[in-house]
């Protein structure tokens, strides 16, 4: 596998993935996620991913509605595979990573393995559009998205780099806001499983408006 890999479709990715279950973590195609790895089983996972040359890790959330065993929680059926694009050792036994999202996947079934981390057989076929950068951008209601963002920032007395926001393409804007959003695992999973960019933006706007309304009704500040 080359150092700077290009993935053109599902066939370019392995059908077996190591998975990292992490509540509230949302990785999307071409999005970037920093990770601080310290548990021995996940340090081993990173070592093996680097050794394999693929440098791929499947990010997936535990399904809290169907928790399963504490040491092996039930997983949602959809996650996102990311490639390790930055790697550093902390000096105190941790790895500091950056994953860049490649494609969502559907978990077919978990494999019986000897590794300390979990591995799953996955399919990328339902998400073939993930390999096409900026797919569906023109359908996004950018004005509604920016309005919801502005209302959220004002309600929470937060500032933002509006020059950067205004210049960001729709895909990068929608996915970055979704990944950074302060919402819970169920909302994050809905954002992940959205069938297209337009629907993801609509979900993000709807959830934001609901949280803002809750804050107004209770007199408390919205989620931060």
UniProtKB/TrEMBL annotation:
InterPro entries reported in the protein's UniProt record: Lon_prtase_N (IPR003111), Lon_prtase_N_sf (IPR046336), PUA-like_sf (IPR015947)
SUPFAM superfamilies, alphabetized: PUA domain-like
Residue span(s) of domain Lon N-terminal: 17-212
PANTHER family: ATP-DEPENDENT PROTEASE LA (LON) DOMAIN PROTEIN
Full protein name: LON peptidase substrate-binding domain-containing protein
Organism per entry: Rhodoplanes azumiensis
